Amino acid sequence: MSTEENNGNIVLLNHPLLQHKITLLRRVETGTNEFRHLVKEIAVMEGYEALRHLPTELVKIQTPIEETEQPMISGKKLCFVPILRAGLGMVDGLLELVPSAKVGHIGLYRDEVTHKPHEYYCKLPFNISEREIYVLDPMLATGGSAIDAITLLKNKGAKNIHFLCIIAAPEGVKAFSKVHPDVKLFIGCLDRCLNSKAYICPGLGDAGDRIFGTIK
Ligand code: PRP
Ligand code: URA
């Protein structure tokens, strides 16, 4: 059975366990602790799907029974790049899958009136052009933050880039794939639309506020 609906570079993940956990995440009564835990679990599931193409090589090992050649992940230089703040919630889930990966950080916040992203921080591992990059952010709303983060990475030499989000709006997906058609976009759930404040409907509210408990 297929675990994803793949439309070119847009991958809509549809595993029932993932859908179940995203539903729990959306609920207004889900508190900070449970929200963080769910974001991490969802990141593991999305990472598992997004990393299924990783190459393996045969290595010789000894089992208690005999010597054998078995597959192990071969020399990919992975880098996870959360968009601050909310993307931080996904990092530990991805690191659980690939503990040796490097982690870069891009800080962006959306202006409350214009909804345009503003950069305030960027720290990336060296040799970014040689790394396979996974940008992490739970929310793709207008797409502005994802687009700017990836433009920034490309300006620094990055070539092999993927984007993982939990919930996306159709408006954001359209804008994103127009500007970065070469970047593979993994989506946990595609929602209906944006509201007048550029929040995703039905969405889950402000992901950063819910992860860090800063809801007014
Ligand atoms: C949220 C979210 C994305 C962005 C998505 O961050 O985590 O980065 O909004 O919206 P967009 O697609 O319209 O750009 P926010 O700017 O609220 O910052 P925060 O994570 O620090 O709360
Ligand atoms: N950022 C969020 O955290 N949530 C939205 O619905 C839109 C942008």
Summed up:
The chain has 216 residues and is of the alpha/beta class. The protein has one domain: 3-Layer(aba) Sandwich (Rossmann fold), CATH 3.40.50.
What can you tell me about this protein's structure?
It is built from 6 helices and 14 strands. By secondary structure, it is α/β, with parallel strands linked by helices. It has a single domain (3-212), classed as 3-Layer(aba) Sandwich (Rossmann fold), CATH 3.40.50.2020. The strands form 3 sheets. Strands 1, 2, 5, 6, 7, 8, 9, 10, 11 and 12 form a 10-stranded mixed β-sheet that branches. A two-stranded antiparallel ribbon has the order 3-4. It has a two-stranded antiparallel sheet with strand order 13-14. A hairpin with a 5-residue loop joins strand 13 (193-194) and strand 14 (200-201). The radius of gyration is 18 Å and the shape is globular. 37% of the residues are buried.
